[in-house]
User: Fold these one by one.
Assistant:
Number 1:
Amino acid sequence: MKVKEILRRPPVTIPVTATVEQAAETMADNKVGLLVIVDPSNPKKPLGVISERDIIRTIASKVPLTVTVDKVGTMGNIIWIGEDESVYRAAYLMRKHHIRHLVVLDQKGELLGVLSIRDLIAEDKIIESLSAERRPVTKE
Ligand code: AMP
């Protein structure tokens, strides 16, 4: 089963100039745990990501929520998967990198969506394909 078969919706993005507080509001409004940080003039090229965990860490370390998302998100080193890759590889990458979200890119390398660990358990047929497709993952 391919990643694109289980993608649910377009990605929820946030401008790189937005604050952490605005990111939290956007997550709550859209009921998602990760936003893709973009430059609005080039929204198909992700600059980074900010997840619920980054916001928890911001609060715990008493950094003001008025800082911009690039200060607390993960910038640059985006962990991504191609739309035509397998859901098994998606699970493998999440486990390997200790993350619950992957950025999904299309064949042109442009932002297509975000895959959450929740998406991997959303339906029986996905869980079944995870075990059925189990095979060595060679590509790093
Ligand atoms: P998560 O468990 O996915 O909510 O995120 C845990 C940490 O990994 C946070 O610091 C995120 O910014 C970072 N993170 C989550 N997903 C990705 C991703 N696809 N690429 C890079 N960093 C990520």
Number 2:
Amino acid sequence: MGTCRRVLIVDDDPILRVIVHSYFDNLGGFEIFQAADGRGALEIVEHRGHEIDFIMCDLNMPELDGIQFLRQLKDHVFSGAICILSGEDQLVVETAQKLAHLHSLRIVGALQKPLNVGDLDQLIPRISESDAKEKSRPFFSVSESALRNAIDKGQIEPFYQPKVEVSSRKIVGVEALARWTHPQFGMIAPGDFIPVAEQSGLIGNLTSAVLTRAMDDAKRLQACGIFIKTAINIAADLLHNLDFPDRISAEIEAAGLNPPDFVLEVTESGILQKTSDPMEVLTRLRIKGFGLSIDDFGTGHSNVDQLRNFPFSELKIDRSFIQGATKDSISKAIVDAAVLLGRELNMRLVAEGVETQSDWNFVAENGIDEIQGFLVAKPMPAMEFMRWHNEHGGSFTFSEQSAAKRDQRQAAHV
Ligand code: C2E
Ligand code: MG
Ligand code: MG
């Protein structure tokens, strides 16, 4: 089978680990890693994730369970194959597979416990098939030095995705999303380089590069009479830097802009730290007038009480729940809970990933304030956003014609 060389077995049952280990050992040509729970597995993924070809993962484990581990694999942009190995009932296993798909993970199967070795035999060709598909995708492995060079040379710039107020249909903001235009490999999406930036300590430089360009673009927009808020993604690491509030506000004021022109988006994992630093940093940012948004809401491990401790002004519901809400009751329940929490804490509610008219109808019926998604537009370069904004006269109207025009123009963008 050749292509699958490093396998990670994650299961709290030592006997099962022995069985699977000896299976791969007998096949030959495998380096085998093992972990007794998601937390141990995560340590391996953090250090050697890019080298692991295949993970076999239990669902019910102490510490970090299989579902939490899948979420972490998404955050680490794990690109290997994954198989679930579980004694849970079929519905749980199917839901776990669906979740993995929503996380864009490469799930190749689910095996029921007690394990039958014949099932493993059937799995091997599926892994090879999935690996072959993955390899046929254009691939560029991002190194720290290539990324540093790209930041220094200004190859990373923000693309802008509009945010639209549901009630008025006005374009009220944009999210700045980093894009790397590589001279050789073309457009590289953030999922391929943000994790490298975070792991290598380059995330501060990258955020500054995005912010500097976003400030220039915001000034250009203001000069044309367009006053909208720019959202910037802030990685968790920066929330430990106690100078961050002073540095960012000084930079923004030096550019002739004001903190309220910006919304800083942080994910739940960014605030779930043992130290009080993120709380201090976020509170000072809020006092300085920045909007603060909790990004990808619903996907982290924070509980509602933890969120109450932070001065967020906006809650952004993750796109997996928005897209799932019209189809399944769990996603709908998560959206309902987010809306309740947002209302109670006086936060503006934003829905990500609105792709269809029925998604739009759903958010409008559920009292969400703003939306962002492919229905309106994909992220685009600054100049194009300016043209787009003017063409739309500052608000979004949906028609079949405009959808066709949008799709044509956006076919070129990530
Ligand atoms: P995010 O902050 O949650 O950004 C939203 C992502 O959803 C963007 O992906 C956007 O293109 C995508 N999206 C928006 N509408 C739709 C839709 O209708 N359907 C679908 N399928 N997707 C939609 P993108 O640009 O690939 O960014 C991915 C993530 O990378 C961002 O998620 C953010 O976490 C991170 N990121 C991007 N730029 C930066 C940055 O400058 N700094 C940091 N720290 N992270 C960044
Ligand atoms: Mg964001
Ligand atoms: Mg998000």
Number 3:
Amino acid sequence: MSDDTVELEARLEEQEAFEPPEEFVEQANVSDASIYEEFEENWPECWEQAADLLTWEEEYDAVLDDSDAPFYEWFTDGKLNASANCLDRHLDDRGDEVAIDWIGEKGETRTYTYGDLHREVNEFAAALRELGVEEDDVVTMYMPMIPELPVAMLACARIGAPHSVVFAGFSAEALATRMESADSEYLVTCDGYYRRGDLLKHKEKTDEGLAQVGHDVSDVVVVDRGGDEYDHDLADNEHDYGDLVAEQEGAEVEPVTRDAEDMLFLMYTSGTTGEPKGVKHTTGGYLSYVSWTSQAVLDIKPDDTYWCSADIGWITGHSYIVYGPLALGTTSVMYEGTPDYPERDRLWEIVEEYGVDIFYTAPTAIRAFMKWGTEYPDGHDLSSLRLLGTVGEPINPRAWKWYYKHIGDESCPIVDTWWQTETGGMMVTTLPGVGTMKPGSAGPPLPGIDAKIVDTKGDEVEAGRAGYLTVNKPWPGMLRTVYKNDDRYISEYWEEYSDSDADEWVYFPEDGAKIDDDGYITVLGRVDDVLNVSGHRLGTMEIESAIVGVEGVAEAAVVGGNHPVKGEAVYAYVITEEGQGEDDAMRDRIVAGVEDAIGPIARPEQVVFTPELPKTRSGKIMRRLLEDIANEEELGDTSTLRNPDVVADIQAKVGDD
Ligand code: WT7
């Protein structure tokens, strides 16, 4: 390293605050700090600004109806269609502009202009109708990052059929439980897709899943991604996507008029209990909110080339690959594969080739880039980049600074955006054209978002002290309920801190956080039994029940251990039944059991066999202690345990592995 570089590194290491570059501020969609005050003084009418980004068929009567809180309604009686907002309204001015630039892992590309996307969405919407899909029928999608996924989502939106996208990496069983929970009778899937050069036989997994669905599935649409590489049969109720679309060539489907509060989609996510929750998002509030945050936080303009590297199977992809960017009429890059195939510079090659302006990714990816080394980004011209973003988990200052320097060349602001599946869109982050950035801290709540850090009694904690993050006013992108389970909606999110007698409702996202004197929030992580593995949310109970389902396992406890790239990794402590081997074969069966029940993302990093689990005198498993053991941290007082002797035993085993 030259002296200059050393000096630069040293300066960056100490620097705690970064101002947005002048050049960025000058062109930013939002650059005036008065927006915070303006939103506060004019709440909830401030959210008209978000609704104004959309085209409404009928104006709404009220911005917010809180008469049945916490079952809030936004933009009541407004009418609109999400697909018309993402497609039709752009046709006149931007029909020939690129909506999606798709890149397959093998290097093939497909370009969809807004006109192309509109055409295919119409054709597929007509096909879905012909299969019998009616307004309000839930259509499940089990698809990887291929263009037919956003096409199918928008086709559903067009005919008013809510979609439920299941991440393609989830297991057959996970698909089946989600289809059952949503009473979904239609599935759109594909035969296969590519990962590190190999064709994954997705259709086989789909078939396994379908065999486990307890009700009749009326139709399955299969996209042919594998081509000649993968021959598969289609059953009587299965249809080839290409044939269906070809049969509908040139079809036009009038977008169905949806009420603002009509469901746009369901997204299943993990919670404290074993059952994933179906988070319900609506047409008016959600679409307004993701459009507004795409504009204000991601600074998206129609002429930009924007790239969010998330998978559409998660909420980040729904909000910030599909709905927000398309509603704003921008050009998005969509990439099928992994960042290190064929080489570790794949993403930077794409940024250079497509002239990407805005790049949004996850801290886990940034930590992997850091590990691989600077030669990969250094080999490419990344000067098209204007703004960088991260989402999904806390980003440590070192990774933030690496991203700032080696990807952004110290000339791009970084937005560290805190939000959740349930919030629909971003909630806590700096506005890139307004706020000072502090690495490691997401920033202040967005304008109009009333977030506070409180103690267990709900009283605000002092600056610098850890507490619980709460949101004290509703916002348009919020979930409306847990699908078919209003009680769970209340108990999961509202019961903890609300005073229902006083009709005061406080949303609890189940994250720990602290705030500084400038009102910047640092999110510390989940406080419930949910792990964040590579930015993916996994319930410990789901993993435990998968392990206990393995023959020969008596009991299991799952906790998160620190991991340098993944953030958290799954540690499983397992008690086997009498006479069962505690060997590699058993370990393999446990890992396979978890992969079958959930998917490879939940695969345990370590399986530790133990004769007992540390328990309190009342019989509760001491998870905190297991976590400390996984992280090889000093253990506090263990004398109150019912079985203190077991601790040293387990510690020795974790060290061994
Ligand atoms: C959980 C939500 C939001 C889309 C991807 C994940 C954690 C998210 C941040 C951030 C610290 C973060 C929280 C949250 N999280 N963003 N910028 N800093 N933590 O969505 O699967 O619903 O998970 O991810 O713990 O509760 P999700």
Number 4:
Amino acid sequence: MKLSNQTLSQLPKEVVVPTYDRSKIKTKIVHLGFGAFHRAHQAVFADILANEHNSDWGYCEVNLIGGEKQIEDLKQQDFLFSVCEMSYDNWNTRVVGVAKEALHADIDGIEKVLGVMTRPDIAIVSITVTEKGYCYLPSTASIDTNNPLINHDIANPHTPKSVPGVIVEALRLRKERGLRPFTVMSCDNMPENGHVTRNVVLALAKQRDENLAQWIEDNVAFPSTMVDRIVPAATPETMAKIKKQLGGIDDPVGIAGEPFRQWVIEDNFVSGRPEWQKAGAELVKDVLPYEEMKLRMLNGSHSFLAYLGYLAGYLHIDECMQDPNYVKAARHLMLNEQATTLRVKGVDLSAYADSLLDRYRNTGLKHRTWQIAMDGTLKLPQRMLDSVRYHLANGTPFDCLALGIAAWMRYVSGVDDNGNVIDVCDPAAEQLNELVSNTPDNQDRVNALLSLTHVFGEDLPTNPLFIEQITNAYLSLRDLGAKETVKQLAQNF
Ligand code: NAI
Ligand code: CS2
């Protein structure tokens, strides 16, 4: 039996279910990217607001590329799905009822998606489509004109495929029909994610029509957000546990994440917004300091542990936490090489670092190092390289950052420390493979990978100190392996 309106009453009484009248919930937000994170984060905030504060803000859930099954499953279960919070020894479950509709561009047609996005009631289009969904270049924070999806959308603007293309077309239709604009809110892990979204949307709009671009610039808001909740991809074990939580009822759309959740939002909305603050979000004028803190301390240390952990054979983050040298190195990275670069004020960064390490220790999570390691070419810049630039400018040490970057180079070289082949998943995988295959396993490979200027910019590949540090770390990883290299480094701290 599947989760549905009918089976809601059969759930164990500990499960939190919608107590509000779901028929009163209105589709006011279109969400692009109905993945694991959205379900356990933004959807939970909206559900709390509906359950406890009479909010009528609901969602149309959309997937443009991938995730067909989730959308189909969601339709079949009256748009209900469950979200579990998993701590070491305790699970709490709620059924979220704020999704009203669901569409997949390939199944339902892009016209239907644009149809919802151009309804007068739509106030917000929010996004969690991973970094690659923005079709941008991290080094310029602007659109990648070589991206095949962007080329498609330039040639076929009325039937777009990319996230920026869909937003531009929906806004064009709204302008043409005299409708109010919507706010575009990115909830992806990018620095100044609102700024990146604005850049790609405006760049694409300019290709079509300067007037449209001007209208967007004048009327649309692109608030930045800092989002945080660790939500690993669901495994068969997770699904089995969710079923148990639901008293034997199946929920293929169910997801589980850690109990912690945080959301800092730039308060810049042109057509209204839910009162997210009532569910614990912080609405602020400037998100940048918070984003920077989270991206460098959390995501930076995550990537550090992911590359060095994966190479050493640690499949999950909590396994890395059982190696005291990895813990020591990650803490040093956070406090000595990331915290020192930050602008955030009034936050106890030492306590923050310890709370992150505690969250990583959650043995319930089983967060795969492989998952965090993916898409490194789009993650390294904001997680590690910006901090390296700070240290190069200030003459301060960055040994852990150098080791993390070198570990990414070993990782994309495709073989772990036990000689197993690595499935390298990255939008630039082909280019990485070519660079790796055509170079010997020494400093030549480091230099070849540094030639990726869309990752490293023009500055880092010509900086002698940077090259020297990365090369030394790379050679140590090659000769001693990740565990021993981390051990030797951690001895200095
Ligand atoms: P997921 O793999 O479960 O979902 C990815 C979503 O992105 C799917 O809905 C898919 O349809 C969409 N997508 C992928 N490539 C796309 C493309 N080229 N164009 C359009 N849509 C595309 O991943 P998950 O866990 O939901 O994470 C998504 C993003 O959310 C992350 O990349 C990150 O930026 C952000 N995030 C995730 C957290 C987590 O712990 N999972 C926590 C904080 C932020
Ligand atoms: C992770 C993030 O997959 C990754 O790259 O670092 O998804 C991380 O779990 C979240 O940002 C936590 O909020």
